[in-house]
Design brief:
Elements: E1 10-20, E2 25-31, E3 41-42, E4 44-47, H1 54-66, E5 74-79, E6 90-100, H2 101-104, E7 115-118, H3 129-144, E8 158-159, H4 160-171, H5 177-186, E9 190-197, E10 205-210, H6 212-217
Parallel strand pairs: 1-6
Antiparallel strand pairs: 1-2, 1-4, 2-3, 2-7, 5-6, 8-10, 9-10
Length: 236
């Protein structure tokens, strides 16, 4: 039995994969494999199959197009303008993933020419994919003010300069180094390691790691990472 007199509407999922290489933010894109806009730069997208949930479709499509798997994908929202796809009526549900580029670089295959682009040097994207990225970035900025979601972008051990670069890159601004360091350490959420990263300077910078147990006890102290008065002028 089917609903009568109803129009066919397709459902697609598009995954927005943000990465951080220790210096800058990047976006993972592929060259679209079919018309329209074949070989143009695109997010990882495809159609939901009858037997799949949205989550299952997002994971399958991401793996088939890039080789990436076992990523945490968070549903972000839906895009439903009737004219967004020139071929058929397609509603797209977007997902966001945050990854440490170095950790997952080995997984990425070259079947669809998956490539990392710096956020400030993105090519023209198909359909409304640029709007998807812009909205995801703004939501990420909001969420990062009260949740340590950005730690997904870092290796298990990191330096305070790397951490500051990560937050400055997200908010497109500069934080005072002393204030940032003081605020970070005052949260007591970081564990200082006994080794240093010595590639960036002769003196070297100590590695830190996130204390998961303390974070669970004091989740809202992550707000101290972000000097909110300094990001009011954030710009894309």
């Amino acid at each position: 039995m089917k609903y009568s007199n109803q129009t066919r509407i397709l459902v697609a999922v598009d995954s927005i994969v943000f990465g951080f290489d220790g210096t800058e933010y990047k976006l993972l894109l592929i060259q679209r494999g079919f018309a329209p806009e074949k070989e143009k730069w695109s997010l990882m997208g495809g159609f939901v199959q009858p037997e799949e949930s949205l989550d299952e479709a997002a994971a399958r499509i991401l793996k088939s197009l890039t080789g990436l798997q076992n990523l945490y994908l968070e549903e972000m929202g839906a895009f439903s303008r009737p004219e967004r796809d020139p071929i058929e009526r397609v509603i797209a549900v977007t997902y966001v993933a945050l990854i440490d580029i170095e950790k997952y670089q080995q997984q990425i295959n070259d079947d669809f020419h998956a490539r990392w682009f710096p956020m400030k040097e993105l090519p023209k994207l198909i359909f409304d994919h640029q709007a998807m990225v812009d909205i995801a970035l703004n939501k990420l900025r909001y969420k990062a003010t009260f949740h340590p979601i950005l730690f997904e972008l870092l290796p298990d051990k990191f330096t305070l300069p790397q951490l500051q670069n990560m937050y400055e890159g997200l908010y497109n601004t500069k934080f005072d180094k002393r204030n940032f360091t003081r605020k970070v350490l005052s949260t007591n959420l970081l564990k200082k390691e006994n080794e240093k990263e010595k590639l960036s300077s002769k003196k070297g910078a100590f590695y830190y790691s996130l204390d998961e147990e303390k974070y669970q006890q004091a989740i809202l102290t992550i707000q101290n990472f972000i000097p909110l008065n300094e990001i009011s002028g954030t710009r894309d």
